[in-house]
Description:
Layout (H helix, E strand, L loop, with lengths): L6 E2 L1 H21 L6 E6 L6 E4 L5 E3 L1 H7 L6 E6 L2 H10 L6 E5 L2 H9 L9 E7 L8 H10 L2 E7 L1 H7 L10 H11 L4 H5 E5 L6 E5 L2 H14 L10 E4 L5 E8 L3 H15 L8
Amino acid sequence: MPSLIDDVGYWTEIKLKILKEYAAAYAKILSKRPHLHFVYIDAFAGAGVHVSKSSGEVVKGSPLIALETKPYFSHYFFIERNKKRIKFLQEIAAGRKNVTILHGNCNEELLSKVFPQCQYKDYRRALCFLDPYGLNPNWEVVETAGKMKSVEIFLTFMIVGANRNVLLSKYSRISARQRARMNTFWGDPSWQEAAYKEQRSLFHDMDKLLKQPNIEIANAYKKRLLEVAGFKYVPDPIPMKTTTGSVMYYLFFATHNEIGAKIIRSIFKKYRTAGIIYGN
């Protein structure tokens, strides 16, 4: 059923390698603290596997990577909206009693069912992988994770989709519907100040709001993760680019743990200089 299994580019394969390396380090450290219950959360789980566009081979998706990580997590939460993909997840998790598969909207499922089971006061910790295709998750989810202090997040900011649908070259061209979408993702309309600046036209006849470079928008989102969501550490995001140099998305990591931030900086540095991801 090829329509249910995504074909992925090398940037996705790199992202999954980053997740694999960090998840292994995370599980190793927390497994040494027997009083802690640590979980893995995949908010956009998919079918659990992909197909590489470059090689045609099967690529392990984030749920399968998490399930194979040793030491094992205490529990796993996989969220998926597509019922047919749920069946794939059930197959790869067969026999694992510590796996919960949820069918629904991740924004609702995380806030109502998953995050309540990851409270700091209950000696719970969580690694949450937020890897959507579009402008997701809602800011409420991100801010809730930050305020909890028990949840670390990877988050994919799909700048290519935002540029195509919302962050147009001129602010005046953005529809009310798309502005509302960005407000939900960003948390408020302050994205407008980060993404658009007044610049004089060629003939100096009027001021116009023109879009700023992608990195400026990414830096503004990082600032929100720190100052609004309340995460203590947010390393510079890693830009995933095509061979032509266009940014597909920024991969963010946010945590309250200094050791976690140090580890991810090292992993990010490794892949920034791998010859596949081309700088900022």
